[in-house]
Write a structure and sequence with these properties.
The chain has helices spanning about 15-30, 35-45, 55-60, 65-90; strands at about 15, 50. By secondary structure, the protein is mainly alpha-helical. It has a two-stranded antiparallel ribbon with strand order 1-2.
Length: about 100
């Protein structure tokens, strides 16, 4: 076995962690008993930002967790297809020529 190519893909909607924290604070407002705990949590997650499946504003209009999950799954499938297509193109291969296919995260 030999690795002939690798690729990755990310959603187009990237937000700095501080911006996402600000948005959560706006949405939850007075519902948060200890706002400093939310700030501390976000400051310790160890990331500068996050990629979201949709623009952050779209999440405000969703009524259920299932609706958000549906969009996440759709986006994951699209990104997976992009990464696979890019990896195959880089290797100069067609899918039918593969002997094995591995995913790592």
């Amino acid at each position: 076995m030999r690795i002939v190519s690798a690729a990755s893909a990310f959603p187009q909607h990237y937000y700095p962690q501080e911006e996402l924290l600000g948005t959560l604070q706006e949405i939850w407002g007075d519902q948060i008993e200890s706002p400093h705990v939310l700030r501390r949590l976000h400051s310790h997650v160890g990331v500068d930002g996050r990629y979201l499946a949709l623009p952050k504003e779209k999440y405000l209009t969703m009524k259920t967790w299932g609706e958000a999950n549906h969009h996440w799954i759709r986006t994951a499938q699209e990104l997976g297809q992009c990464a696979i297509t890019d990896a195959l193109a880089t290797a100069g291969l067609q899918g039918r020529e593969l002997g094995a296919f591995f995913l790592f995260r």
